[in-house]
């Protein structure tokens, strides 16, 4: 009976850990709609609007899966506000010897602080893009 209780408790704990909020409050993901694959090597810049000006908080480059799982800077408290994530798509397309209409794609969003994590996916093609609030 003790083994059953232990197993049930371990299963519940594992499920809770699997659904815990990520430690970093911001992640991004870039997928290339032209071939349906992730877009590794896209430079991404995070800024916050402060007193009418944009302040750079961090920069990163998408990994092999087209992700930056922790774009918000370590050691800085997350706060509500208006943020801008800029995907440097022109350089990425040029590196892949492809033309593109968009040299960069800025995504401006308002974080109200009610969510512990914000995810910004970008669906990319040479002449169009789509984004949304992910989770």
> How many separate structural domains?
1
Instruction: Write the CATH homologous superfamily.
Output: Transthyretin/hydroxyisourate hydrolase domain
Radius of gyration: 18 Å
The portion of residues forming beta strands comes to 35-45%
SSE pattern: HEEEEEEHEEE
Low-confidence stretches: 1-19
> Biggest β-sheet, characterized?
5 strands, mixed
Question: The CATH topology, please?
Answer: Immunoglobulin-like
CATH class: Mainly Beta
- Which range best describes the helical content: under 10%, 10-25%, 25-40%, 40-55%, 55-70% or over 70%? 10-25%
Identify the CATH architecture. Answer: Sandwich
Number of helices: 2
Name the overall outline. Answer: globular
Pfam families: Transthyretin
EC number: 3.5.2.17
Subunit structure: Homotetramer.
Catalytic activity: 5-hydroxyisourate + H2O = 5-hydroxy-2-oxo-4-ureido-2,5-dihydro-1H-imidazole-5-carboxylate + H(+)
């Amino acid at each position: 009976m003790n083994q059953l209780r232990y197993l049930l408790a371990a299963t519940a704990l594992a499920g809770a850990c699997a659904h815990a909020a990520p430690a970093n409050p911001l992640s991004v993901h870039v997928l290339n709609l032209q071939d349906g694959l992730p877009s590794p090597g896209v430079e991404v810049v995070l800024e916050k609007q402060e007193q009418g000006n944009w302040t750079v908080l961090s920069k990163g480059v998408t990994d092999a899966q087209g992700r930056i799982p922790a774009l918000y800077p370590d050691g800085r408290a997350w706060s509500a506000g208006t943020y801008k994530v800029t995907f440097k798509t022109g350089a990425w397309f040029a590196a892949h010897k492809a033309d593109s209409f968009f040299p960069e794609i800025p995504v401006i969003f308002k974080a109200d602080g009610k969510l512990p994590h914000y995810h910004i996916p970008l669906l990319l093609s040479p002449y169009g893009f789509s984004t949304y609030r992910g989770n």
